[in-house]
Amino acid sequence: xxxxxxxxxxxxxxxxxxxxxxxxxxxxxxxxxxxxxxxxxxxxxxxxxxxxxxxxxxxxxxxxxxxxxxxxxxxxxxxxxxxxxxxxxxxxxxxxxxxxxxxxxxxxxxxxxxxxxxxxxxxxxxxxxxxxxxxxxxxxxxxxxxxxxxxxxxxxxxxxxxxxxxxxxxxxxxxxxxxxxxxxxxxxxxxxx
Length: 193
What we know:
Elements: H1 2-6, E1 40-46, E2 52-57, E3 64-68, E4 74-75, H2 87-100, H3 114-127, E5 135-137, H4 146-149, H5 153-166, E6 171-175, E7 183-187
Antiparallel strand pairs: 1-2, 2-3, 3-4, 5-7, 6-7
């Protein structure tokens, strides 16, 4: 009987397998590292619920725009009296918006195909036309649309020059002798019936 007392082994503790944590689902790109073609992202701000507010420029760093990737907030380069929005003012506006915006992050805009961007440009030129005279249009006025079209200035200029060739009744170009051959674009005057 004594042998049976010592030959017992202690009962094994029940082994519980480690809890398997589900792998996190991949988060959609919300702008933390997004660098759309045709613009330079200068600063990023987080809103209260982690949407991203971008300060970006399509020029050589002197004309800035602000865009929230959570809501539809956009601040153009000409808010008050300036011909451009300097970085300090753009940063202050982005920070103010980020402090109050409660919009959830959205996916970044998909890059549209070339035909869609050409349609945007055609619409932009066509809506610039007036009954009075040919209206000069500046590529700078496309800055707010740059996050949507996601194209370089060179691509946009080539598309506009092709539009001027294909539809000269809508758009004409003029090369300036005073600005080292810079091309200016003019939306043609609307026909008077």
